[in-house]
Amino acid sequence: MESILGHKVVPGQYITPLYKTHGDGVLSFISGKGTTVSQIEHNEKVVPIIVSTVVGILVSQPDASDENKITVSVLSSKYTATGANPDTIDISPVTNNLPKENDIVVVRVTKLNVKQAYCEILSVESSGNVIEDSGLGVNGDIAHQSLGAGGGAQALNNHSTIASSLTAGINAMAGELGESFKGVIRSQDVRSTDRDKVKIIESFKPGDIVRALIISLGDGSNYYLSTARNDLGVIYAKSENGAGDSMFPIDWEHMVCPKTGVVEKRKCAKPIT
Amino acid sequence: MLLSPAERQYLYDSLVQNPPIRPDARNVFQCRPLEATTTFLPSSNGSARLRMTDGAECIVSVKSKVVKTADTPNLLEVDVDVQGYRDDSNFVATLKYNLSSLLHKNFPFEALKLTSRYSYKLFIDCIVMSNTSYPLTIISMAIYLALKTTKLPKLVSEVDDVNVEEQPTFSDDWEDAKTLGEATGSDFQPPVFITLGVIGSSLLFDPSLEEEQVLENGLIVSFYDGKAQTPLQNINLALNSNKNNYKGLKSTHIVSAISMVNKYCGMIIHALDTLIDQDEGDGQVF
Amino acid sequence: MNTDRRRILGPQDARIPDLGISTNANNSMDIDPAGFAAEKRSSDIQKMFMKTNFISNANGSSYIEHGDTIVQVSVFGPRPIKSSFIEQASFSVECRFLPHLKQDDALDIDGDHHSNPNGRTGLSYTEHKISSFVESCLVPSILLDKYPKSTIDLHITVIEHNSESTSLTNLVNWITVASSLALVDSGVEVRDIVTAGHIISDGQHVILDPIEPVSKRTDCLVCFMNLKNEIVGIWVDGDLDNLDTAIEECNKMSRTIRGNINSYLLST
C-alpha cells in the first residue's frame, strides 16, 4: 500500500488486505470513505481486501489511541482541488455520501407548521455539500426557474418513459423538481428540556440556517433531525422574516438585530464552546 | 417486502448448501408441477393454457395468416401481455424481445412455406393471467404446447406459382390440416427457455418467487433440437426486490448451466409431449 | 387514380426538390471493406476515443467514439425520492437511439410501431432490451446500500450507430463501457469498473471487437468486473461450442479496455 499512498487510485483497485503482519504485531486496516471490503479468493482462501470505490487520492490515518489501527480512505478527486499536495489535504474524506444517522448537517428551514419545521439539507459536516449539484437542485443556477417534465436536461428523455428499474419498487421515482434531501425537526426534538412547551414558531423561521443532528433516516421523503443539544440550533438568521439584517444570538433562545435592535425568538446554537 | 431479513437469511443458507435444500423439496433440475390444456380455443390454429402450483397462469394462442413471403421480413410475431404491467413497460418489452429472438433463431421456417410466393405467418399471442415468479419459462412452455398442437389448413392449389399468379386455396376439411411437425416431416419440437437461478456454486431450474429473492444471479438458456442453444443471457430475476444479493457469475456457472440444460431439458420436453398426448381430443378447459 | 379528399395534398404535379440527397450516393463505399478488414488484425481492438465530465448539469457523464459508434451517457443521482422509504438506491437505465438512426432490428419485433420515431414517447423493444441488459450488468458493481432513499438514473443516448456494419452486441459492448465510465465519473461508489468484450468466432478463428460484418457462428458479448473476474453480463447468439474459449477472449478484450480506462482516469 505504501507505494500508492498519496497517489491516484481507480475504482476496483486493491489497496491493502484488512490485516497485515508488521514486525511482531499485526496492522489492522479499516475501510474508510471511498473504499469497500471485497472478499477475494486466493489459493482457495478468501481474503478480505480493501478496494477503492472512487477515483481519488489514497490517504491513511492511524487511530488516535492505537497506532496499529489504520483507516484508509480515498478522497474523490471530483471534490478535491487538482494539484493539491496530498500531505496537506484535509483528512476529512469528501465523497458525495448521503447523510447518515448521527451526522451533523446544516439545513435551511423552508416551511413551518405547529408540529414541525421542514427543511432542506445543504451539507453534511466534514463531508461538504450533500450532492454535487446536478443543475436542478438547491445549489443550481436554475433552482428557481420552472422546468418541464424530465428536468429539461436531456434531449429525448421524458418522465412518462418506463425505463428499466428492476432493483427497486416502481414507487422509487425521483421528484420532478428540486433535488435537495428534505428533513423535519419535530417540536419534541427542538430542545431537550420542556419539550412539551416548545413552539415551533418561536424556534425557527423560514430561511434560517440551522445546525442539526440526524436522528433517523426517517421515511421516504424526510430525514428526522434534532436540535436538542447546546451546539445545535439556528446559526444564521435574518430579522423580520428575512427582510431585515442578519442577527446575533444574545442567549440560547433570543437573537438581536444590531441595526434595529429588534429581538426575535430562536433556538440558537452555541457551536463554539 | 416479500421476505423478512431472517427469512431471507434462512432461505439463502439452505439454498447455498451443496446440494441445495429448496423450500418445496425439489431437486435442482426439477420444474414446479404444472397443469395444461391444449387446443381449447376454437378460433385459433393452436392454443394452450398452462397453470403452475403457485397460481401462475398463461394462455397462448397461435393464429395464422397467408402472406406474400417477399413482403414479410418476419414470419413469426410474438405478442406478450402481462396482467398488471403496462405494454410499454421494460418488463413486458424484455420478455417479448427474448421470446421473439428465441423463436426467430430456432424455428424451422420452411414448415411455414406454402408456395414459392406465399407463406403462413404465425401470430403468437401470450397472456399471462397471473404470475409470481419471472414468467419467461411458463410462457415459453405454453408456446411450446401451443405450437406443437398448431394445425394449419392443407394447401390444395399448386405449390409452384412462380410463373402463374395464383391465390393459394385450402382444403375445407379440418381433418386434413397438418401440424407443424407433419409439415416438416420430422419430429418438430419448438424451442423453450429455461430460467436458472444462480446461488453459491449451484444452479436451480425454474426458481420460485421466494427463491428469486435471494438468488445471486439468473441465467436464461434456450433448448432446441435436443441441446442447449442461444439466446443465452443473464438476467436479474428478483423483480422489485429492494434488497438483493445480485452478484457476478463465474464462467464455470455458465458451462455447468449448459451441461445441465443438455442433460435435463430433454426430460422436460418429454413430459410436455406426454401431456399433449394425454390431453388430445378433450378440448375442455373447465 | 387515388384521391384523398380528407387532406390538403397540394398540387397534383408537385415535385419534390432533390435537397439533402447526396449526388454521390456511393460516398460511403470509398473505404474498401476488404482492405479495412485486412488492416485490422483479428486480435486488435478498434481505436476508441473517450471523454468524461462534459455535461455540467449531470452528476457524471461520458462519451465514447468507436468506429461508427458514438455513445453518450449521463448519470443523475443520487437524487431524493418522493415516496415510501427504501433502504438502498433504486437504479434505472434508459437507453435511446437518436431518432434518425436505424435500429438494428433483425427480429422486426417493433413492427410498425417504430415508423414514427419522432413522435414516440416510449422506448422501442431494442432500447428496452439494452436498458435492462445494462442495468443487470451494472447493478452488481454499485454500492447501492450506501445511498438509501435515493435514485440513480442513467441516461444513454446512442448518437451514431451503423446497423449494417456494426452488430447490436458490439454497440451494447461500448454502451456498457461508456455507462460504467459515466458512473465512475459521477463519484457514485462502485466495487469495480465494468468493462466488456465482444467476439465472434467461426469455430476456428476468433475475431475480437468485430466492426465489419462477418459471417459468424458464435457472437458472444461478456461484461466483467475484472477485480474478481466476475461475469456480470453475458449475451450469446449462435453456436454454444467452445463457449469457455469465447469467454476467455472476451475477458482479454475487457482487460485491454480496462487498462485504457484506468490510464485515462489516472491522467485526468
TrEMBL record, chain A:
GO molecular-function term, one example from the UniProt record: RNA binding
GO cellular component terms given for this protein: cytoplasm; nuclear exosome (RNase complex); nucleolus
Organism: Candida tenuis (strain ATCC 10573 / BCRC 21748 / CBS 615 / JCM 9827 / NBRC 10315 / NRRL Y-1498 / VKM Y-70)
Cross-referenced Pfam families: CSL4_N, EXOSC1
Domain Exosome complex component CSL4 N-terminal: 11-56
One GO biological process term: RNA processing
InterPro entries cross-referenced by the UniProt entry: Csl4, CSL4_N, EXOSC1_C, NA-bd_OB-fold
This protein's UniProt keywords: Cytoplasm, Exosome
Domain Exosome complex component CSL4 C-terminal: 98-217
Localization terms from the record: Nucleus, Nucleolus
Origin: domain of life: Eukaryota
Predominant place of localization: nucleus
Protein name per its UniProtKB record: Uncharacterized protein
Xref: PANTHER family: 3'-5' EXORIBONUCLEASE CSL4-RELATED, EXOSOME COMPLEX COMPONENT CSL4
Automatic annotation (TrEMBL), chain B:
Cellular component, GO annotation: cytoplasmic exosome (RNase complex); nuclear exosome (RNase complex); nucleolus
GO MF annotation, one: mRNA 3'-UTR AU-rich region binding
InterPro entries on file: ExoRNase_PH_dom1 (IPR001247), ExoRNase_PH_dom2_sf (IPR036345), Exosome_comp_Rrp42_subfam (IPR050590), PNPase/RNase_PH_dom_sf (IPR027408), Ribosomal_Su5_D2-typ_SF (IPR020568)
Pfam annotation, one family: RNase_PH
Chief location: cytoplasm
Presence of the UniProt keyword Cytoplasm in the record: yes
Compartment annotation: Cytoplasm; Nucleus, Nucleolus
Annotated GO biological process: exonucleolytic trimming to generate mature 3'-end of 5.8S rRNA from tricistronic rRNA transcript (SSU-rRNA, 5.8S rRNA, LSU-rRNA); nuclear mRNA surveillance; nuclear polyadenylation-dependent rRNA catabolic process; rRNA catabolic process; TRAMP-dependent tRNA surveillance pathway; U1 snRNA 3'-end processing; U4 snRNA 3'-end processing; U5 snRNA 3'-end processing
Entry keyword set: Cytoplasm, Exosome
Family annotation (Gene3D superfamilies): GHMP Kinase, N-terminal domain (3.30.230.70)
Domain Exoribonuclease phosphorolytic: 30-153
PANTHER family the UniProt entry points to: EXOSOME COMPLEX COMPONENT RRP42, EXOSOME COMPLEX EXONUCLEASE RIBOSOMAL RNA PROCESSING PROTEIN
Protein name: Ribosomal RNA-processing protein 42
Protein source organism: Candida tenuis (strain ATCC 10573 / BCRC 21748 / CBS 615 / JCM 9827 / NBRC 10315 / NRRL Y-1498 / VKM Y-70) (Yeast)
TrEMBL record, chain C:
Pfam families, per the entry: RNase_PH
Coiled-coil intervals, chain numbering: none
GO molecular function: RNA binding
Domain Exoribonuclease phosphorolytic residue range list: 45-189
Compartments where located: Cytoplasm; Nucleus
Primary residence: cytoplasm
GO CC aspect terms: cytoplasmic exosome (RNase complex); nuclear exosome (RNase complex); nucleolus
InterPro entries: ExoRNase_PH_dom1, PNPase/RNase_PH_dom_sf, Ribosomal_Su5_D2-typ_SF, RNase_PH
Any one of the GO BP annotations: exonucleolytic trimming to generate mature 3'-end of 5.8S rRNA from tricistronic rRNA transcript (SSU-rRNA, 5.8S rRNA, LSU-rRNA)
CDD domains reported in the protein's UniProt record: RNase_PH_MTR3
Record keywords, A-Z: Cytoplasm, Exosome, Nucleus, RNA-binding, rRNA processing
Domain of life: Eukaryota
Family of the protein in this entry: Belongs to the RNase PH family.
PANTHER family: EXOSOME COMPLEX COMPONENT, EXOSOME COMPLEX COMPONENT MTR3
Record's protein name: Exoribonuclease phosphorolytic domain-containing protein
Species of origin: Candida tenuis (strain ATCC 10573 / BCRC 21748 / CBS 615 / JCM 9827 / NBRC 10315 / NRRL Y-1498 / VKM Y-70)
Taxonomic classification: Eukaryota, Fungi, Dikarya, Ascomycota, Saccharomycotina
